């Protein structure tokens, strides 16, 4: 599970909206319903054309020895990607793990909308905050499950 510190807090009192890399990380983990909710909050969204229609392929996943050592190829995973351009010129990109072309298209759409100042604050304070809260709660549950199974080892020394 990803580190919970990487999730953004998108409350109404936040001074700055999330950076693009942060919102794309959240959108890649969002459900279709969460993405549909985000799109529905922007009824005046411009029309768009596909620069790259959703397509599925493989990418090599790398790991690191001990988490920070030498890199090694762990294996391949399936990724779906797409790119669109709104008629106002804004370009949105969507990448998701797996073969879900519809979800990748929704991610690209919300990415483009997040780049528009009039939509950014509404989306950051609403749907993106909800996604971040869900992911943080899931990470906390995972951490609690892991902690519950932790075994503490100790050594007793006998004196002669």
Automatic annotation (TrEMBL):
<dbReference type="Pfam" id="PF06754">
    <property type="entry name" value="PhnG"/>
</dbReference>
<dbReference type="GO" id="GO:0016829">
    <property type="term" value="F:lyase activity"/>
</dbReference>
<keyword id="KW-0456">Lyase</keyword>
<dbReference type="GO" id="GO:0015716">
    <property type="term" value="P:organic phosphonate transport"/>
</dbReference>
<dbReference type="InterPro" id="IPR009609">
    <property type="entry name" value="Phosphonate_metab_PhnG"/>
</dbReference>
<dbReference type="GO" id="GO:0019634">
    <property type="term" value="P:organic phosphonate metabolic process"/>
</dbReference>
<protein>
    <submittedName>
        <fullName>Phosphonate C-P lyase system protein PhnG</fullName>
    </submittedName>
</protein>
